[in-house]
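U., I forgot to send this yesterday:
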Amino acid sequence: MKILYVTDLHGDKDKYKKILEVAINKDIHVIVNGGDMLPKQCNRHEEQPLFIKGFLNDYFKELKDHQISYLCMLGNDDLQALDEMFDSVCGKYDNIYNIAGKKVIINDYEFIGMNYILDHPFGCKDRVITEKDYIPQQQLSPVVGISNMYGYNKIYDWLVYSLAELPHMSDVLNNLPTSINPRKTVYVMHMPPANLQLGQLLYQDLDIGSVDIYNFLKEKQPLLSLHGHIHECPDTQKGKWMNYIDETTCVQPGQTELYDMLMTYVEIDLLNKEYERNVILIKELDE
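Result:
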């Protein structure tokens, strides 16, 4: 069974269209999207609902027309307040699966999604959790917030709040659906694991992966885990796009920035355990 894995498209319609084109040309009928699906360089409360109800709704219909299964989930830059709307649009189509906190079985392979991340320095704190011994980062803004349908519930002392109120990554992981056959299980986790250089930053020498995710994968030993979140990681000096935790393969393709001429994705043969990262032109230069 072959799949295409792509992540961090952030509402770039050309990238969405290109990965569909690749799937059609390669006769691949499963696409996995690892999160951060919606526009972010905009008024998110205005643009993200329109993107879900407009572009994504039409895109899901086109995927169905081509008999392509689409496994997806929102990420930390996608407003948590829109989860119900997103789930409703996904539910209109029998080929579209919102896998956040859920398990989907396709051709005997189990796909399990988890879209929470560790704290970051940015103001929108949707889907942010913590873990034991996590050291909070220096914040870029004195006031942060968690989204509601009209704006943000503001938090004025994030350090105190984060230490006392945030769920722990280990608890979230332990509450995921149970895998029946680990060697045919694929975890899709927007946050990368620690210690593998899959969360390597460009602007400082730091791998921000999650220790809890690493320990979870080491214990469960699934066939594969798919990650994203840190766009530049594979193209940094120390960063990687693929690494291993014993018998588990961990993949983080990275992504180009919004409206770049290039995009990245990984073609995966689950049966033969073959993985190929591709960096391709979205459009020909004369278009």
